[in-house]
Design brief:
two-stranded antiparallel sheet, about 30% helix, elongated
Length: about 110
């Protein structure tokens, strides 16, 4: 009888009764899940092009206010333009000259006399 009691004592002494021992593992699992979800969303919506320096992307989106925005990315430069329904100028105008684009991409303006 004494032999059985001693054995039970040693078996209980080796067990860890800390309730917080499993929390670290849950945190690691949660972190891996979040990173996996983030990568899956980036793959589904093809957002990886945003991080490429050679890509050119144009996105048109509507704000919560109902205003339209055009987001353009060319290389490393990102620009945001807001679209309005207001007219900037009148319907009338005067011809001032002619603009030419050269083969190297430069533009030349020649005024009318």
């Amino acid at each position: 009888m004494r032999y059985l009691k001693k054995r039970r004592f040693f078996r209980d002494a080796g067990e860890d009764d800390d309730p917080m021992s499993g929390v670290a593992n849950l945190f690691d699992v949660g972190l891996v899940f979040i990173v996996g979800l983030f990568l899956a969303l980036m793959t589904v919506y093809r957002i990886m092009d945003f991080f490429s320096e050679t890509s050119e992307i144009t996105i048109m989106k509507k704000n919560k206010d109902g205003r339209m925005e055009i987001i353009s990315k060319k290389g490393r430069a990102i620009s945001v333009e807001r679209v309005t329904d207001k007219k900037i100028g009148g319907e009338e105008g005067v011809r001032l000259g002619t603009a030419y684009q050269l083969k190297d991409g430069r533009m030349v303006y020649v005024p009318d006399e």
